[in-house]
Design goal:
With about 200 residues, the chain is α+β, with helices and mostly antiparallel strands. It has 6 helices and 10 strands; from the N terminus they run βααβαββββαβββαβα. Helix content is about 25%, strand content about 50%. The radius of gyration is 17 Å and the shape is globular.
Length: about 200
């Protein structure tokens, strides 16, 4: 599937709360499936030779509350805050030591198209964040709003990021862009130019 989302960077954590409490978000909030401050721990893996990165993709395991999910993300674009990329996801019971231990399915098959089944996987980047979620309905378009307070760590260095993500769940991506513009006019938000992973890679 293709992930399409608008990413907006905030200058401080307080802005995230202001967005969540705003009349714009409260008016569009469906009240279904929201979260407040759930921990999301994302760990990025590759082989020693960084074969996945060389193939233009990344492999992430993420602890989302109490469940682990793996995601294979392909190289995409981010233009004026709008990010587009292809990704495959699968639930995992825990993180495997090699690609061959991934659960059977499209994600595993795609990873094995790049690296050998027994190739050891090594951590190179970690994103530890608190995420609050609101599920919005905007003129027939479903949008997941995520407010992220993230610490990104790589190569013994780290940085902090405050970010609003607006992900298209169904409907018109133009509505996601429109909502992003509304929020930027109300709050000190700017279009993100880099993904969390790229920010981490730049630390090295």
């Amino acid at each position: 599937m293709y992930e399409q989302e608008v990413k907006l960077t905030a200058p401080k954590c307080a802005v995230l709360g202001e967005v969540l409490r705003s009349d714009v978000v409260r008016r569009l909030d469906t009240g279904l499936g929201g979260e407040d401050g759930t921990r999301y721990l994302g760990i990025y893996y590759d082989t020693e030779a960084r074969e996945l990165e060389a193939a233009g993709c990344s492999l992430r395991a993420r602890l989302e509350g109490r469940r682990w999910r793996a995601a294979l993300k392909y190289r995409g674009t981010i233009d004026n805050g709008l990010s587009r990329r292809r990704e495959l996801e699968a639930d995992i019971g825990g993180w495997p030591d090699c690609a061959g231990q991934l659960p059977d399915g499209g994600l595993k098959d795609s990873v094995l198209g790049v690296i050998p089944a027994r190739a050891p996987l090594r951590e190179y980047l970690r994103v530890d964040m608190r995420r609050s979620i609101r599920n919005l309905a905007f003129d027939g378009t479903g949008i997941e709003l995520c407010a992220d307070h993230a610490t990104i760590a790589a190569s013994s260095r780290h940085t902090v990021l405050y970010e609003i993500e607006l992900e298209l769940k169904h409907g018109d991506v133009g509505k996601v862009v429109e909502l992003g513009g509304m929020l930027m006019r109300r709050f000190p938000l700017t279009p993100s130019t880099l993904t969390k992973r790229r920010i981490g890679l730049n630390l090295g």
